Input
Amino acid sequence: LLDVSSHKVAKELFDQIKHFSEYFTLSGSIVPNDNLLYSSFENIYDYAVDLISNSKNYKDETFTFFSKDDMLKKYMAVELLEELDQGVKNNFKGFHLTYHPQINAKDFSIVSVEVLLRFKSESYGDTSPNEFIPILEKSGLIHNVGIWVIDEALSMCKKWREYNPDFKISVNISSIQLKKKSFAIKVINLLSKYDLPGDALIL
Output
C-alpha cells in the first residue's frame, strides 16, 4: 500500500512502471477523504469497478481518474430509468407534449404543429430530452412511449381539423421504433381510430 498524496504523484508512478517488458495488469486507486461520496467500502468498491470498466474502453497503458460528476450522472440515469418505467406503467405519468406551430408565411396562419415529448421527473424536475430520450431508447420503453405520443398527437389533430380541414401534425420518431414490424400497423390503426387521412401525420 503506497501513500500517494496527489494525482501528479500517481501519474509519475504510472509512467515509471508502464515501460516494463512483461505483460501484466495493474490497478490502483487514490481515495480522497470525502465522507459524503465515499461513505462506505461498498461505495468505494462500486466506484472502482465502474472506473476499471471505463478504462477498458480506452487504449492500453491508460491512467484514468474517477469522475464524481460522471458517477452522479450514472446514478441519475438509473433513477430516471426507474421513474420513466413507472411513468409508463402509470398511464404515462410525468410525460407531456408541447406543440410548436408552423406558420404560413403568406397569411401567418398555423398550418401544422411539431410535437415534442417532455418529461418531468419527481426527483430532478423538468428533464432535458437529451437525457431521457437515450434512456427510453436503450431500455426499449421508446416503443410504448412513441405510440402514446402519436395517439395523443392525433387526438389533438382531430380537434384542430374541425377549424382547418388540411391541418397536419408532425411527430419525431426514433429509428429504433422503425425496427418493430408492428409499428406501421399501430400507426395505421391510430389514424383509423381518429378517422384521419395518412397525410395528416408527418413522421
